[in-house]
Amino acid sequence: MLPGLLGHEDETLFSGGRAMACSLVKKKLKAFNEALDGTYKKQSNWVVAEENLRKRICQLVVDAIVPVYRSYIQKYGHFIEQDGIKNVKIYSEEGLVNMLSSMFQPKKGKCYSTNTRQSIDKMSEIVTSRFPSTTVVA
């Protein structure tokens, strides 16, 4: 969902001139930011207690979102810099990676019930069966 908000197909049709292009870039970035912030806020209460699974999920999220965002900013960021578009948040790549990697962390001081633990174990089984372990080379 999030990467699709920054699709490049519209930008190839900048027949409306620079003002139209700036408007479209701003609109897409605002839509992406709203979706990202909303998703992050909603899922910040979700916890994946098993550390390796949590890291794997976060890495999959980073791998799905960051390259698309980076590409969009590299290709269209000059509209924001040159025209001084205001009120549009631009994430640094490091900031975006840190934000996405911080998801699903256990909250300090919270205890988990048996039902919560069982739900976490079930989710862990589902995710690991759908996303088999692979080696990631940095």
From TrEMBL:
Domain Exocyst complex subunit Exo70 C-terminal: 9-102
Keywords: Exocytosis, Protein transport, Transport
GO MF entry, a single one: phosphatidylinositol-4,5-bisphosphate binding
Top-level lineage group: Eukaryota
GO biological process, one term: exocytosis
Protein's UniProt keywords contain Protein transport: yes
Keyword Manganese attached: no
Known role: Component of the exocyst complex.
Protein name in UniProt: Exocyst subunit Exo70 family protein
UniProt organism field: Vitis vinifera (Grape)
